[in-house]
Amino acid sequence: MGQILPVAAFTTGQFGPLTRYDAWHNLISAVFEPGPPDGRTRQDLTAEASSVHFGQLLLVHAKADAQHFRRTRRLIAREGLDHYMIQVYRAGVCDGTYGETQNTVRPGDVKVIDLAQPFSTFNTDFDNTTLTIPRAALAPLLDRPDRLHGTVLPGNSPLGSVLGAHIHALSGAAGHLTPEEGGVLAAGSIRLVAACLGASQRAQEETNPFRAAAVGQAVRDYIDENITAPALGPDMLIRQFSLSRATLYRLFMDDGGVAAYIQNRRLRRCFLMIADPRQSALRIGEIAYEHGFTSDSVFSRAFRRAFGMTPSEARAEGRGVVAPNQATFINDWMRGLRPRSD
Questions:
Q1: Which of 59, 75, 129, 199 is most buried, taking the most CB atoms under 10 A from its CB?
Q2: What is the pLDDT of residues 181-203, one digit of tens each?
Q3: Is the pTM here over 0.85, yes or no?
């Protein structure tokens, strides 16, 4: 048989009762903070997951015992994942709070989670499949890309049934697809998701949204690669990418502007370094200065606004981090998702 898409699997049956919860937590900790329901202990947990990496999207089928799941602002800041998760349930009920939205998801329903926003849910014993798509690949095709968090398409609705059936079919075939077949189906899946969630007029033009998404992702990647450069700012980006100032500002309109985006990325990098036990020899002031903050008080205030804690508290919390075990493919693959640039 020829090359197929990357596939990985996990089950708590691989671990003893005292370590299975930690293994499950390490598997999904970039996305969720799981917790057992009242009356159960972490040792009671049974869970399994299989995942297929399409390059520009990730498909995960999971079955697990009842749990709470949370995504906090602190977790969002620490991981920086900027994806949509499209979830369809085969079994189980999910009661969730997504900002001001509260709802219940039942078997057959399709739910949308925006990983840039916090939420909390309680799931009964469940079986679901999740399609994860980078914002840069999907948002340009949507009419209201920032207002989908917590959206539910009922399984008995026309759009919900179409999208749910597609995700189930994709899950059934994914482990046997070649990379070429996977690329074609991934591109089509993104367009189908957009059509079901509310495609914009721009989505009718096949190339422009993807070109805009590719430019936006390239600029963001460049910012991350040059995050400590003192001259990093609008002028540097305009020169590097030959963009007009108006075009650059449009790319970051939903992020509060270019300067705000750069500062938020610098703060996130500082958070990761401060909380990393391996970087404990570096003084907090050194890290802040390296990332363009020349005043300790200004840095401390900005850090607290972003993460709800002081830099010293972040360092103290980081000392208690448990080293991840080998079963982390979902976290690693989620962090590595990128939209196609062609």
A1: 59
A2: 999 999 989 988 988 888 655 55
A3: no
